[in-house]
Write a structure and sequence with these properties.
Layout: H1 6-31, H2 37-61, H3 75-79, H4 81-95, H5 101-127, H6 129-142, H7 146-185
Helix pairs in contact: 1-2, 1-4, 2-7, 4-5, 5-7
Length: 199
């Protein structure tokens, strides 16, 4: 990632905040359209993690650049394919009234790809030299603890890795349960004298 100026970094942080807010609504609304209680609970957990990340990004971006405001129309230009992935997920959610097991498994797999994209983008952001400069200025102007802020951003990346592992586990378990049901429902053919040929 090329070094960005401070305004660009602040705009990016605002965009990530809006993106996480959209992700929060996605997971929360998805949880309301499924009939799997254990998965519903996990999706709500993911939703509120995303809301937390949205507020963290905004908290860092706002103090030094109060005039920077990003709306959803600018998200595509700033975030590109990541925003497109998010929109595809939310569009699928909008047109589907109820998610059966097959549809849920498919959208969770797409959600996993989306979360992995976020991990890559956020990891790059944490290493961005200009971001380190912004955090240091926040320390000088507002006595914000530099290490705490950096730790906060790093924790977002760690949270995303945990959520990705959670999504991966959910999709694996759903596939395993479906396979087990197929095996259990396979008709068993009974032969009246299976060893008669050996007499």
């Amino acid at each position: 990632m090329n070094q960005k100026n401070e305004i660009e970094i602040s705009t990016l942080l605002h965009c990530f905040s809006l993106l996480e807010q959209e992700t929060y609504h996605f997971y929360r609304n998805l949880s309301e359209k499924i009939d799997f209680p254990h998965i519903k609970f996990l999706l709500l957990d993911m939703a509120y993690e995303s809301l937390k990340h949205s507020k963290m990004f905004l908290a860092i971006a706002t103090p030094m650049f109060k005039k920077v405001r990003t709306n959803k129309h600018e998200l595509h230009e700033t975030l590109g394919i990541i925003w497109e992935k998010c929109r595809r997920l939310t569009n699928e959610l909008d047109i589907t009234k109820k998610f059966d097991e097959g549809k849920l498994s498919a959208i969770l797999k797409e959600s996993l790809k989306f979360e992995l994209s976020l991990i890559e983008s956020y990891s790059n952001l944490v290493e961005e030299e200009t971001l380190q400069t912004i955090i240091r200025k926040l320390f000088l102007l507002y006595h914000v603890n530099y290490e705490m802020l950096k730790m906060g951003l790093t924790s977002i990346v760690d949270d995303k890795k945990r959520l990705s592992n959670l999504l991966s586990s959910i999709t694996f378990l759903m596939a395993k349960e479906a396979l087990d049901r197929v095996k259990n429902n396979t008709p068993k053919v009974k032969y009246p004298a299976p060893y008669a040929w050996n007499r």
